[in-house]
Structure formats: C-alpha cells, structure tokens
Amino acid sequence: MSQTRRVKYRVCTMRRGKWIVAEHMVNLDAALAKATHLLDMKRFERVRVEQEFTDPGAKRAVVTTLFEKVGTAPKGFEINIKMLLTISVTLGVAMFFLMRYLLGTGLR
C-alpha cells in the first residue's frame, strides 16, 4: 500500500484576493525556490507552498501549508499631474475645434 502513497507540492499565489495554483512539483526544494522567485517578482500579494499527501488505498488526502509569505500588493492605477495636464490640454484643444466647427456651420 505504501507504493500508492504520493507526496506532491503545490506553489500557490494570491492576486487580487484569489489563490491560484501556479505549479505542481515533486521536490520540496524546487517548490520553495519557485515560491521565493515568485516573491522576488513583486507581482503577488502572497505566495505559499502546500504539501499534498494522497493515499488512494485509505481514501484520504491531506494538505498542509509548509511556507507562506506576504509579498507586495500590485500597484493600482494612479493618475499623476502629468496625465491630468495632458488630459486637460487635449480636452481644451478638442473643445476649441468643436466650437469653431459649430460656430462656422451655424453662421452660414
């Protein structure tokens, strides 16, 4: 029966509050290295490594969290002063040409 028992490792990432399985691995060291690499990318809120033990003969499965670390939250969309200035100038120019067109066609 011990031959059917399996131990696998899952590397999971959290983005926008949802956990996603990034990769399944057989080696714990490789899973921890992958989790560290994903944390260094600074794209995920959290990263964790889970050990999944399955025993089909006994009809059971156990999942244990071995490693979990908080990363950096992804940056949201920010409007800076340069973007505001560009938008306002573009709208001003557009309004100038629109008014010129409307006044030009209205006088004929």
Description:
With 108 residues, the protein is α+β, with helices and mostly antiparallel strands. The chain has 2 helices and 4 strands; from the N terminus they run E-E-H-E-E-H. A hairpin with a 4-residue loop joins strand 3 (46-55) and strand 4 (60-70). The longest helix has 26 residues, at 81-106. The protein has 2 domains: 6-70; 77-108. The mean pLDDT is 88. The chain has a 4-stranded antiparallel beta sheet with strand order 2-1-3-4, with helices on one face.
Summarize the structure.
The chain is of the alpha+beta class. Helix content is about 35%, strand content about 35%.
What topology emerges from the helices and strands here?
Layout lengths: L5 E10 L2 E8 L2 H13 L5 E10 L4 E11 L10 H26 L2
Antiparallel strand pairs: 1-2, 1-3, 3-4
Distinctive features:
4-stranded antiparallel beta sheet, 2 domains, 108 residues, 4 strands, alpha+beta
- Summed up, the helix count is 2
* Class per helix and strand makeup: alpha+beta
Beta strand count:
4
Largest sheet: 4 strands, antiparallel
Helix content: 25-40%
**What's the alpha carbon Rg, rounded to whole Å?**
27 Å
What general form does the structure show? rod-shaped
Number of domains: 2
Q: Assess the beta-strand content as a share of residues.
A: 35-45%
Largest beta sheet: strand ordering: 2-1-3-4
- For the termini, the CA-CA separation is 94 Å
User: Uncertain runs with pLDDT below 50, 5 residues or more?
Assistant: none
What is the residue-mean pLDDT, rounded to a whole number? 88
Compressed to H and E, one letter per element, the order equals EEHEEH
